């Protein structure tokens, strides 16, 4: 049976002590040296350490949940197999001039976390410069509100510039669209108003970058942001408006892009523009060939410069878009006349 004893320890040097099979819930230590002590198999939840020297102390198999530590020296301490949920660390600093373990050249052994579950932890106002994170799960990890997975993907995009690849028509493109459209339907549910295959892969016989462009019409564009986490689980990066007001844009595949999703409010002028361009080129193979030939030539000239490729086809794309909108409007007028 565990013995019960009340201790009042203040301004004591109990360095090198050993605590084992100890129940010390809500223990308070004030102005005490525990340097190089050992604490094993202990329940110390709710503990308060104030002005404590615990340098070189080893703590194993302990419950430290809800612990509060302030003005303490934990340098070279080892904490192994402990519960820390609800624990707060504030104003953790390197030794200052005058402290016993101060190093004038700033050479200190770095703090390390290994095989730790820090999910849900928060770091605010901390100096994390030089931190090295390896082989860790980072799903949902955010820095200043930005998901780290997105930052890493953006860095990869910058490091490996997207190559310009224009492929011959692929009979699998429609099936790839249908497969992705079904996934998006399940994510957006009742918010979805309509979904369309757009871009060059939607035009029969068109050479294209092998990227599936999906146009999504929703009932409320402002509601789309609530689906960002679900889109991430499908492999997409949410990019917000990305230069076009009242749009939500997502891409998948990073530097080896596979899908683009363009989301607009149902009935948006951008919806009309995209669908008119697709339908016009489908109905006018000569203009479609002009567009395809230009893309093939630009890909040959700029095989690793996506920006130059996009700039190079901009003028013809705008010309064809203007023709497509006129054609679309005329077709609408003819339909109205026929209805009358």
TrEMBL record:
It comes from the Bacteria. GO terms for molecular function: transferase activity. Keywords: Transferase. Pfam families: GrpB (PF04229), Pentapeptide (PF00805). This is GrpB-like predicted nucleotidyltransferase (UPF0157 family). It comes from Paenibacillus methanolicus.
């Amino acid at each position: 049976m565990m013995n019960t004893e009340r201790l009042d320890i203040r301004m004591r040097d109990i360095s090198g002590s050993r605590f084992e099979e100890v129940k010390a819930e809500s223990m308070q230590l004030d102005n005490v040296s525990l340097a190089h002590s050992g604490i094993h198999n202990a329940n110390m939840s709710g503990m308060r350490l104030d002005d404590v020297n615990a340098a070189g102390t080893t703590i194993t198999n302990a419950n430290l949940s809800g612990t509060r530590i302030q003005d303490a020296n934990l340098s070279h301490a080892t904490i192994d197999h402990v519960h820390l949920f609800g624990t707060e660390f504030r104003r953790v600093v390197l030794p200052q001039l005058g402290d016993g373990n101060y190093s004038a050249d700033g050479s200190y052994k770095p703090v390390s976390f290994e095989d730790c579950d820090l999910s849900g932890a928060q770091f605010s106002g901390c100096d994390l410069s030089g931190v090295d994170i390896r082989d860790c799960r980072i799903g949902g990890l955010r820095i200043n509100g930005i998901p780290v997975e997105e930052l890493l993907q953006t860095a990869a995009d910058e490091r490996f510039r997207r190559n310009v690849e224009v492929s011959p028509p692929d009979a699998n493109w429609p099936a790839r669209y249908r497969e992705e459209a079904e996934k998006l339907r399940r994510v957006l549910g009742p918010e979805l108003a309509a979904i369309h295959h757009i871009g060059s892969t939607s035009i029969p016989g068109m050479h294209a970058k092998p990227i599936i462009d999906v146009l999504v019409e929703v009932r409320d564009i402002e509601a789309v942001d609530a689906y960002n986490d679900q889109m991430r689980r499908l492999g997409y990066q949410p990019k917000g408006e990305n230069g076009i007001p009242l749009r939500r844009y997502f891409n998948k595949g990073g530097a080896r892009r596979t899908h683009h999703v363009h989301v607009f409010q149902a009935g948006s002028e951008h919806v009309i523009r995209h669908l008119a361009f697709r339908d016009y080129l489908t109905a006018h193979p000569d203009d479609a060939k002009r567009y395809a030939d230009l893309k093939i030539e630009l890909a040959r000239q700029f095989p690793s410069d996506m920006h130059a490729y996009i700039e190079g086809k901009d003028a013809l794309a705008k010309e064809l878009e203007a023709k497509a909108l006129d054609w679309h409007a005329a077709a609408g007028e003819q339909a109205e006349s026929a209805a009358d």
